[in-house]
Design brief:
binds adenosine-5'-diphosphate, 16 helices, alpha/beta, 8-stranded mixed sheet, single chain, about 400 residues
Length: about 400
Amino acid sequence: MNDAIVVINAGSSSLKFSLYSVINQQLQREAHGQIEGLGKAARFKAQKRESGVSAERTFEKSVGGFGYHEGFSYLADWIRDHFHDALSLLAVGHRVVHGGADFGEPTLIDAAVVEKLEALIPLAPLHQPHNLEAIKGAAKLRADIPQVACFDTAFHRGRESVTERFGLPDELFLAGLRRWGFHGLSYESIASQFRQIAPGLASGRVIVAHLGNGASLCAMKNGRSVDTTMGFSVLDGLPMGTRCGAIDPGVILFLLTSMTPKQVETMLYTKSGLLGISGVSNDVRELLASKEPLAAEAIDYFAYRIIREIGSLTATLGGLDALIFTAGIGENSCIIREKVCRGLSWLGIEISAEANNTGKRCVTREGATPSVWVIPTDEEGVIAAQTLKVVSHRGH
Ligand code: ADP
């Protein structure tokens, strides 16, 4: 019987999971899946590595809904039914969006940690409560199993204070109004993969473009975050599927003269970005296929802001050795990569159409610098590795 780690990534209405076996301290993903529509009519989907078999089940809306608790019970039963002969649960690793100033490393969860994470809810009100609900749900089911929190903010800790500050009174900085940065688990994944792929470049000046439904850039020196586009919240920086990206604070003040704070929040998080500009979709595939002029405008704005922010972060780094695209859009859209790279030709970037269109890992013309790469992110793998490290350390 081998040890196993379950990785949980809990969102507002979905719970994604991955199950890893641990053999000689090596992780192998055995299954993954998700429960969508939590709180309503939920849908469970899972896929096993070995057999390739996929499972699917829909739960009708029950009285009180099918929430986290029911989701966890069903997931635990599914894992038991499919792996009881082979795997014994060692630990659960959770993605937690905000670690604040206290958590710069993955952390074993206990009551005191939960209390500190709850205190951070006002800093990430749309994400942190769901992460905590998942932690409590798992503890209720298996109080004997260690749980580890892995933070999206942690990768960005230790930056110079000027990169973290707003031009606000210092007491507000000390109270947590600072540019925390997010997507850290993805950046950790890319930094460690790039160290294997191109160690020379990885020790230099690198910008990673995490372009998914949420989008941000991270400037790295020697694999460590130097600056990033997301700030106090996951709204800042690049425009995203439904989030606005960087915005003049005067706009918010103006909106508040005719809208409630809740209405403004809903607009900035769910009705802005690509969806807001185009009025068509938050999905880049649909925008690229659309004939609506505003769909093209949304794509142009997205690319423009990425180019502008890469210019800004290049100045922070004092030059650029490599640019890496990752996440749903970054990994899959050769058109977005081409548009962004075209706007960066002044930096010396020369993309190879053949490499970019045929799924190559390095997509620049041979010998051109900075080089441009496409590397799939693996946030779950990072959470599993961090969780294993924490529980192994505890074991010693
Ligand atoms: P999340 O932030 O939800 O994890 P992902 O990283 O999975 O998001 O990215 C999802 C987005 O990726 C989709 O909304 C879509 O815009 C984009 N995407 C996925 N595949 C493609 C593709 N082939 N071409 C363009 N965009 C794509």
